[in-house]
Design a protein that fits this description.
By secondary structure, the protein is an alpha/beta fold. It folds into two domains: 22-88, no CATH class; 101-233, Glutaredoxin. The protein has ten helices and five strands; from the N terminus they run αααααβαβαβαββαα. It has helices at 4-12, 17-22, 24-41, 63-79, 81-87, 107-114, 130-146, 162-167, 210-216, 219-232, and strands at 101-103, 119-125, 151-157, 181-186, 189-194. β4 (181-186) and β5 form a beta hairpin. α1 packs across α5 (81-87) and α4 packs across α5. The longest helix has 18 residues, at 24-41. The two termini are 45 Å apart.
Length: 258
């Protein structure tokens, strides 16, 4: 890790190597760094070097060198936070197709109460959460497969709208592991959510896979019921989901609406 961190930072800065070549200082520093690794790790160059290791292996770092490299790695990561982005393998933001409506702190309550015959599945997420970003393409694919007039998919950023997280009891603390949270709304009321929350306020372990979401939320059954109700029209009782009446959608709320 002590050697890997500087190398990752170096690879990330490849587009800026042209600036290094224009300044001999940076080029010389890079050559000295590579030369140190070659001399210290490559036999037979390292065979004659002194060592303080107990096993007497001269081609491996001793404790003093490890401490120095760890200290230098910490400085590199502090100076270049983008290198930490690569080391944590943070997934990129999903920019693919989806049929999802994005809510803010005002529109989420209005939309859930607009037509109580519509069933909503809403994801509560935060952009800084790796789990949310990993689940984004799965949720988008589900919206493309199952979205219809009586079954809609929505998202709300509780990292940005903290009052929404309080109102719907979704903790944004990384310790609770409640992000992302999926909540099923029928008749404007919460029916179920995943993950479930224990008595200590922590999320019960649950895998956000496409198969688990389809099974736990009965998406196939909800989809078929919503399609039948949308064909039946106004003869369906109020409490059952049917096609929502066409309404104007506020600008900027959905990628599809845009």
């Amino acid at each position: 890790m002590a050697v890997l961190a500087p190398l990752i930072a170096l690879v990330y800065s490849v587009p800026r190597l042209s600036r290094w070549l224009a300044r001999p200082y940076y080029l010389l520093s890079a050559l000295l760094s590579v030369a140190f690794l070659l001399v210290r790790k490559l036999p037979p160059l390292c065979s004659s070097l002194p060592t303080q290791r107990e096993d007497g292996n001269p081609c491996d770092f001793d404790w003093r060198e490890v401490e120095i490299l760890m200290f230098l790695s910490a400085i590199v990561m502090m100076k270049n936070r983008r290198s930490m982005f690569l080391m944590t393998c943070k997934p990129p933001l999903y920019m693919g197709p989806e049929y999802i409506k994005y809510f803010n702190d005002k529109t989420i309550d209005e939309e859930l109460e607009r037509d109580k015959r519509v069933t909503w599945i809403v994801e509560f997420f935060a952009n800084w959460s790796n789990d949310c970003q990993s689940f984004a393409p799965i949720y988008a694919d589900l919206s493309l497969k199952y979205n219809c007039a009586g079954l809609n998919f929505g998202k709300v950023d509780v990292g940005r709208y903290t009052d929404v997280s309080v109102r719907y009891k979704v903790s944004t603390s990384p310790l609770t592991k409640q992000l992302p949270t999926l909540i099923l709304f029928q008749g404007g009321k919460e029916v179920m959510r995943r993950p479930q929350i224990d008595k200590k306020g922590r999320a019960v372990s649950w895998t956000f896979s496409e198969e688990n979401v389809i099974r736990e939320f009965n998406l196939n059954e909800l989809y078929q019921r919503a399609k039948k109700l949308s064909k039946a029209g106004d003869n369906i009782p109020e409490e059952q989901p049917v096609a929502p009446t066409p309404t104007e959608v506020p600008d900027g709320e959905s990628k599809k609406d845009k």
